[in-house]
Amino acid sequence: MSTEALQWFKSTYSGSEGGQCLEVAVSAQAVHIRDSKNTPEDGPTLLVGPAAWAAFTATR
Asked: Which residues, 6 or more positions from 47, have their beta carbon under 8 angstroms from its beta carbon?
């Protein structure tokens, strides 16, 4: 899947002033994570499986 086709959204924990934001896009196979300063063309994208993302975001 091309990262351009994904629907990216900014983390709700990101501030409105920009700079240090996390963006996430969800596909059937993976959760895609990137720094909001980067676009798919110029920055890395981290891919994790749905189970790993659920464990990462679980409230403890």
From this structure: 30, 31, 32, 33
Which residues of the chain fall below pLDDT 50? Answer: none
Residue 56's nearest CA partner among 20, 48, 10 is 48
Cβ–Cβ contacts within 10 Å for residue 23, how many? 19
> Domain containing 14: what range?
3-57
Residue among 50, 16, 8 nearest 58 (CA) = 50
Question: How many domains does the chain divide into?
Answer: 1
Answer whether 14's CB lies under 8 Å from 35's CB.
Answer: no
Whether 11 and 26 have beta carbons less than 8 Å apart is answered as no
Six-digit token string for 13 = 């924990």
pTM of the shown model: 0.71
